[in-house]
Amino acid sequence: MKIKLIILVLVYRNTKDLIPFFESLRSKILYPYKIIVVESFYNDEVHNKLLELQIFHKFDLIKTENKGYGSGNNIGISYALKNYEFDYLILSNSDLIIKNFFNLDDHFIAYPNSILGPIITTKKGKNQNPFIPFRFKFLINAYHLSFYNSDKFLYTFTIMFNKLLRLIFLIKMFLLNKKTLKTYSIHGSFIVFPKSFLHLQSEIFNSKVFLYFEELHLAELARFKNYKFFVSRRLNVIHFEDGSTFNQKNTFTIQKNSFQTFYSEWFE
Asked: Is the pTM of this model over 0.90?
């Protein structure tokens, strides 16, 4: 089946945000699209709620074991490629709404070998894109050292420094009145892929990474495949940050394992 756009949503246990998310899609996207929901199975209650929502919203539902962000999205991308002809695929969290959208052809005709991200604002007003604006090796190495030595002070400093870089990027974008600006990596809550990129490799994300830093693996893969990341002011979403993740007492350990998997693959 030929469709202009695929919307791929990974759901773990939060279903309450799906209805406002679907409503924002309907109000902002003016050409035909198909929604695919990948359910990283949590329990029967969540599954039954998704079946109820499917009746009205007509999405494809794929139920799979919860193996994390990368694995779930790889499954959804593979399903989309096997079952639909499309031009673009948006990988999106469910816990956001679209505020501004535009004709994606306008961007991808100008930049065919690219991947696109929006301006992402949290409900507290924090900017999340770009994820890491510039490919500074010293920044990557600082993350590596902070995890390798379990140095939470260095880790916090690295995060704060990256926030400063993000602010510089956004100021540059607005001062130069750039609608679109090239960057190193974009936040994983909302990514627009051209179909051409999805065909380049059997798995876009590293399935060994359960959660965190998937964006960096994607950034290095895109760089290796000669694709560039852009952030567009014509694309704007609000991210509520309450959907796909869950409370973790050992968040630092999970981040450490994820980053070390990324670092060993691309920098060692």
From this structure: yes
| 3 state DSSP class of 263 | helix
The phi and psi torsions of 136 (rounded to 5 degrees) equal -95, 120
Tokens at 112, concatenated? 């065919």
The rounded distance, in Å, linking the Cα atoms of 233 and 224 is: 26
E strands, 3-129, are 5-11, 33-40, 60-64, 88-92, 96-100, 114-122
What pLDDT is attached to residue 248?
56
| Cα–Cα distance, 93 to 215 (Å, whole number) | 14
Number of domains comprising the chain: 1
Residue numbers of the domain that contains 134: 5-266
Question: pLDDT digits over 51-84, tens only?
Answer: 999 999 999 999 999 988 999 999 999 999 999 9
Report the alpha-carbon distance of residue 116 to residue 106 in Å, rounded: 12
Listed in sequence order, the residues at least 6 apart from 114 whose beta carbon sits closer than 8 Å to its beta carbon are: 107, 108, 194, 227, 228, 229, 230
Question: What is the domain-level CATH number for residue 16?
Answer: 3.90.550.10
Residue 252 binned pLDDT confidence (cut-offs 50, 70, 90): confident
pLDDT at 109: 96
Backbone angles phi, psi at 224, to 5 degrees: -65, -35
